[in-house]
Each structure stands twice: as structure tokens, then as C-alpha cells.
Amino acid sequence: MDAGPQVSVLGATAPDTDAAARRSLKRHRMVATGLLVGMGALCAASFALPHGLPQQLLESASKAGVVGGLADWFAVTALFRRPLGLPIPHTAIIPAQKERLGRALGRFIGAHVITSAEVSRVLARADLPGLVHRFLSDPATARPAATALAAALPKLLGSIEDGRARRLLSHLLPRLVGGPDAGRVVARALYGLVEGGRHQEVFTFVLGQLRTMLTSKEDDLRGGIRDRVREQGGSLLGWAIGGSVAKRVIAGVNSEIDAIGPEGSTMRLAFDDWVREQIKLIETDPERAAEIGAAVKRVVTHQSVQDWLRDVWERLRLAIERDAEKPNGHTIAVLEATLAKFGAAIEQDPAIRAGLERGVAAIVGSLLPLAQERAADFVADVVAQWDAKTVTERLELRVGRDLQYIRINGTLVGFLAGGLLFLALRAIFGASAGAL
């Protein structure tokens, strides 16, 4: 099978994609030219007919058809080249005015094609939230996206390691956690601990540590109590009852600890009430909230805490960078899961869909004036770089077939108009009107 004409591209042979358009243009041009030649032959043949009304009508109509066909042939040809190669003014319009036409075409595209209304219509029809959802929900696309993001993480993290991010964090963090709302934040965090019973675990831990300390320091406590009794009651009294007093005191402390230990004990319930009351004060009392905020601010601005945070960040950054290089690392898995959750949220939450659409529309709207200007310049530059032959050939291949219909119609309309005009003149002026 014939693949059609071939063109050379960088030394290689490639199919001519305009071959079909060339054949179509050639076929329509032959039809239009053939009709013009036929009309001329009909005009010549009319002179061989016997003189009379039919001969005069045919002569007038064929003459007008030849004139109409020639006029339209000249007009169509003058758009792309000089008719018969003659230097007639105002011919070969497209090659001579290609730069001006390119600028006009670019301005038209920028002003009337890339408009706010058209762009909004295209965006609405494209359903960008749906596209993003399908992209993020498909593992075949979400996985490569997560891998690409993970590969970009080291560069991103490295770009903020120039000291500015640290200085910004050191100034911003105290304002965030040390402001008036710090007390409420701490209160909410403590509420979470209390509702989960974590404060009782802390209380149990403190009691256990206290018992351990009493056990390890029992001998020192006995000696201290005996010495205190001796100081207050004399050596004889200290020797007689000092040891007994010390034993009773230590036994009483251990007994109280044992009484506090069980769940639901009076002391534990009192501790629970006290903690909740303090949390409520932190949340409702402006002075207490301000004290908490100031305390938090002092902590986070302390140099040792700042050094610790920098060390934590450095370790975390290095761990993320190392893990991001692993194809099956946690970083890629977390990013992929995050993208999938975001895709699901877009599909399920109308507010997120609407927000995404508004965000895209706002971005496109802000970039639209620049896009219009660049599109106009781009079209003008591309057309300006084409040589005259390229411009002529490309435009003629796109519109030349339709222009041949102008030639065909001009020939036929001229033929009919010439005949009708002859008949009208004949009716008005009689046989003296003669042929056109």
C-alpha cells in the first residue's frame, strides 16, 4: 500500500501528514479550473450557433460565467501568490503581510479565544476535582507521584537549611505557643489526659516512686527521727522511745500510701477533682491562662530547649532523607496514603471540591492576563519565523479547498446572472439590446 508522499526530517524519511489535504486541494482546483475552461468552451461554441435569441442568451450567460470565474480565480490566487507571476499590486497578500497577519491572529486569540468566560467554561466541563480524585485514587498514578514527592524532599528540606527557617521558627514558635491561647491549648491537652485516665497513671507512678524512696531511705529516716526526738526530749527520752516513734511514723506513711493506692480510693477521687478544677481554672481564668502561656514561652525560648529542638529537627531531617531514598520506605508509603486520603476527601466532601475549584479558578484568573499576552506574542513570533512559502502552503492547505468553491460558485453565478441580465435588458429595450 502506498504510504503517501514522504518528507525528510533531520535526515530521516517520515510520512507527509498533509498528503490527504494536498490531494483534496488538487482535486477541487481541477474541478474549478475545469468548470472555467468548460465555460470558455461554451462561450466559443455559442458563436457557431445560428443567430437568434437562444444563441444570444447562451453567449451572454457564458461570457458572464467566464468573467465571474476569472475574477474569482484572480481573487483566490492573489491571496497566496502573484497571478501568472505578474507583479500586480496588492497580490500575494499573505506572504507579503505574514507578520502583520501573525500579530493580528495572536491578538485575536488572546482577546477572543483565551477569555475568562471560555476558560471558566472549559474548567467546569473538565471536572478538575474528579480528575484529581481519579489520579490520586489510582495506585498506578498515586505511587509514582508519591515517589516523585519523596525524591524532591531532600532538596526541599535542604533549601530551608540556610538558617532562615531556624530563625523564623525560633521567633514564631514562642508567639504561637506562648500567647493568650496557650492556656486553653494546655487545658484541652490535659482534658484529653484526664478523660483517658492518664493522670491516675501519673499519680500511681509518683506513689510507687515515693514508696521506693521510703524503702531505700528507711534507715536514714529512723536515724533522723531519733535525733529529732533526742533534741526535743533529751538523750534519755530519745534513747527510750526514739526508735519506737520512728517506726510508727514510717509505718503510718506506708499505711497512708497503701490506702491511696487502690482504684477508687478517697484520695484518688480527691486528686481527680483537684486536677479537673485546676484544668477548669486554666481554661476560664485569664490570669491563670496568662501564667501558663508565660511559662510555656519561657520553656520554649530557653537555649537548652532551642538546642534540643534543632537537634531533633536535624535527626528527623536526616532520617526522612535516608528513608525517602528507599523504594519501599515509610516516607513513600505515608505520602501515598496521604494522597489517597486527599483524593477520597475530594470525592466525598463537597466543600473540598468547591474549595479546589475556587482555588484553581483563582489561580487561572490571576494568570489569565499574562497568558493572553504570552499567547498573542507566541502566535506572532511563530508566524513571523515561518518563511513566505511555508505560510502560503499551510494556509492554502487548510482553506484552499473551500476557496475553490468560491471559484466554482463565481463561474456558475456569473453564468446565471449574465443570462438573467440579458433577458431583463431584452424585455426592457427589445431586440436592440443584443448580447452582453
Report the principal-axis shape: rod-shaped
Query: What about the largest sheet?
Result: 2 strands, antiparallel
Alpha carbon gyration radius: 48 Å
Helix content: over 70%
What is the total tally of β strands?
2
Low-pLDDT parts are 1-14
The proportion of strand residues reads under 5%
Residue-averaged pLDDT? 74
- Straight-line N-to-C gap: 53 Å
Pfam families: DUF445
Organism: Acidisoma silvae
GO cellular component, one term: plasma membrane
Protein name: DUF445 domain-containing protein
Short structural description:
This protein is an all-alpha fold. Helices cover 83% and strands 2% of the residues. The chain has three domains: 17-96 and 388-433, no CATH class; 115-147 and 346-378, no CATH class; 156-344, no CATH class.
Describe the structure.
83% of the residues lie in helices and 2% in strands. The two termini are 53 Å apart. Mean pLDDT is 74; it is low at 1-14. It has 18 helices and two strands. It has 436 residues and is an all-alpha fold. Strand 1 (6-9) and strand 2 (12-15) form a beta hairpin. The longest helix is centred in the C-terminal third of the chain and has 42 residues, at 388-429. A two-stranded antiparallel ribbon has the order 1-2. It folds into three domains: 17-96 and 388-433, no CATH class; 115-147 and 346-378, no CATH class; 156-344, no CATH class. This is DUF445 domain-containing protein. Keywords: Membrane, Transmembrane, Transmembrane helix. Pfam families: DUF445. InterPro entries: DUF445.
